[in-house]
């Protein structure tokens, strides 16, 4: 059976520059929408994280005033998918040959751990070399920063990509006190960052790399990957 891997953060806290702890977790729509797209198309979907730790739900993604009127459906779908899968795979044990695509959802967790996870970095470098589809949405593109090759270069430098913008971070209220801002960091590392209107669906494809700007981009991004597969 064809398989897709969703790689989640293991972080439940984002430490701010003033030392305060900001609770975080996975963003329901960013897990649920891609899972629904691939499962409906007949793909088996696996979940992995650093150490196989299951990250909690970001409660903001269950608030209809923040995440929209469909958020309860996304919360239920993501929870069911994770419950049915069972214990997450430890990233260190993932075998790339098993997968047609790797999906990196957000929540703020990826800026805490995935951006520097060496196991994920090796997996992404190998996946990109093999032409495996790599998809990242919202804060998920922070995970791409882990992909440093043997020469110390960033694998995704000069690639076109979308990600949660600095403007969206400010509008969400989490820019002040953030150790670093994702879109700015991606540009600093050499990415060609592209963006659309705040909180509106916007996706970018660059070869086998598929990225989405925000939670609303999760479904459209997954549909693009599916069409390519």
TrEMBL record:
Name of one Pfam family that matches: DJ-1_PfpI
Has UniProt tagged this entry with the keyword Lyase?
A: yes
Q: Which family does it belong to?
A: Belongs to the peptidase C56 family. HSP31-like subfamily.
Sorted keywords for this record are: Glutamine amidotransferase, Lyase, Stress response
- Protein name, entry field: Type 1 glutamine amidotransferase domain-containing protein
Which InterPro entries does this one have?
Class_I_gatase-like, DJ-1/PfpI, Prot/Nucl_acid_deglycase
Q: Where is the DJ-1/PfpI domain?
A: 29-226
Taxonomic superkingdom? Bacteria
């Amino acid at each position: 059976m064809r398989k897709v891997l969703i790689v989640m953060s293991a972080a439940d806290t984002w430490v701010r520059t003033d030392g305060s702890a900001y609770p975080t977790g996975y963003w329901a729509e960013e897990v649920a929408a891609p899972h629904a797209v691939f499962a409906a198309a007949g793909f088996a979907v696996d979940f992995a994280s650093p150490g196989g730790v299951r990250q909690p739900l970001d409660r903001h993604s269950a608030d209809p005033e923040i995440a929209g009127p469909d958020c309860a459906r996304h919360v239920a779908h993501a929870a069911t998918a994770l419950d049915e899968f069972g214990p997450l795979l430890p990233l260190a044990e993932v075998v790339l040959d098993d997968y047609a695509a790797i999906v990196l959802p957000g929540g703020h967790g990826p800026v805490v751990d995935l951006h520097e996870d060496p196991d994920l970095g090796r997996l992404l470098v190998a996946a990109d070399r093999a032409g495996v589809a790599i998809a990242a949405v919202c804060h998920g593109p922070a995970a791409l920063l882990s992909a440093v090759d043997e020469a110390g270069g960033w694998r995704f430098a000069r690639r076109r990509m979308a990600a949660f913008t600095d403007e969206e971070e400010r509008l969400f209220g989490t820019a002040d006190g953030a150790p670093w801002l994702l879109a700015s960091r991606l540009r600093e590392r050499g990415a060609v960052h592209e963006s659309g209107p705040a909180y509106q669906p916007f996706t970018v494809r660059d070869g086998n790399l598929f990225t989405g700007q925000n939670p609303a981009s999760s479904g459209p991004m997954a549909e693009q990957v599916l069409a390519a597969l």
